[in-house]
Design goal:
This protein is an alpha/beta fold and 298 residues long. The chain has helices at residues 18-29, 41-49, 89-97, 135-154, 174-178, 197-210, 227-238, 248-254, 257-264, 272-277, 287-295, and strands at 10-14, 33-38, 53-56, 74-77, 106-112, 157-163, 165-167, 183-184, 191-192, 194-196, 216-219, 225-226, 245-246. Strands 3-2-1-4-5-6-11 form a seven-stranded parallel β-sheet, with helices on both faces. It starts with 9 loop residues before the first strand and ends with a helix. The model has no long low-confidence stretch (mean pLDDT 92). Residues 95-220 form the NAD-dependent epimerase/dehydratase domain. This is NAD-dependent epimerase/dehydratase family protein.
């Protein structure tokens, strides 16, 4: 059961990239005080110009993490783990820094559907066991576990969003398509779920307002499709020629490993809990709607 909505007055965002800035804008539009953690003075000036109070620190350097008072704030943790290893050192450093700055009201962590491992072609519910396989997914699950344990210890509600592929303005594979790089044959490209970045930002805010303690939510839209179908839809929307499709063996030879995994992994999520519990309506429930809106902002 979800908690009643909290009357959030302050937000603090760790990881002020595209998604962080979208969430910040939503908070500012509501009249909330918004702070954000960035790594450089230049980034700090950009935040300040947008009305966001900057905190300059580096998650890899615990001694640099001098955080503002976060008592009662809603914290959004969007920063990725460091490269390498199976443990998220950055999350651990951030939690250590929280010891002297007051406890937030709730903390949201943006995780990945990769923690479910090889889930097959059936939509996965939040009750499915986490079985991360890749080092990337293992670091994400380590972060989930660290945050969950910290939340239980300190009585802070920690909400985890397990997200599939994010698309939206600035996130489309336009360069890949323009360069004519091949796609995996449609019949061999497996289905996966997606979410538009604007919908994801709204879901993040709603999750902090309505999510209960230690809750996990799968996040995706209503229309999964293969990565090849996604790239093809983007090409058609742009009015450019679709790159050639190649066999699985050829794709393994010519594609970088991360891109090959992107085409061959199946990441289907069951999003009923998100839709029923978070009081959010998707603006872009289907890919064609989200692509049209994204391209209009490119």
């Amino acid at each position: 059961m979800s908690l009643a909505a909290i009357p959030m007055e302050r937000m603090f965002i760790v990881g002020c990239g595209d998604l962080g800035r979208r969430v910040a804008r939503l908070g500012l539009d509501r009249g909330l005080a918004v702070g954000g953690l960035v790594r450089s003075e230049e980034q700090a000036r950009v935040l300040a110009h947008s009305g966001i109070s900057p905190c300059v620190a580096h998650l890899d350097a615990r001694d640099s993490l001098h955080l503002p008072d976060l008592s009662g704030a809603g914290v959004f943790y969007f920063a990725p783990p460091q490269g390498g290893g199976f443990s998220d050192v950055r999350v651990k450093n951030f939690l250590a820094a929280l010891a002297g700055v007051g406890l937030p009201a709730r903390l949201l962590y943006l995780s990945t559907s990769g923690v479910y491992g090889a889930a097959g072609d059936q939509p996965v519910c939040e009750t499915a066991p986490a079985q991360p396989v890749t080092a990337r997914a293992r670091r994400r699950f380590d972060a989930e576990e660290s945050l969950r344990a910290w939340g239980e210890q300190h009585g802070v509600s920690v909400i985890t969003l397990r997200v599939t592929n994010i698309y939206g303005p600035g996130r489309l594979p336009i360069v890949h398509l323009q360069n004519g790089h091949p796609l995996l044959a449609e019949e061999q490209s497996r289905p996966t779920s997606r979410i538009h970045s604007e919908d994801l930002a709204r879901i993040c805010l709603s999750a902090v307002e309505h999510g209960g303690p230690a809750e996990v939510f799968n996040v995706c839209d209503l229309e999964p499709c293969s990565t090849t179908a996604y790239f093809t839809a983007v090409a058609e929307s742009l009015g450019i020629a679709c790159p050639p499709q190649v066999s699985l063996d050829e794709a393994r030879r010519v594609m970088k490993p991360l891109l090959f995994n992107y085409f061959t992994e199946s990441r289907l999520l069951n999003n009923k809990k998100m839709l029923n519990s978070l009081s959010v309506r998707l603006h872009y429930p289907r890919l064609r709607d989200g692509l049209a809106a994204s391209l209009s902002q490119e």
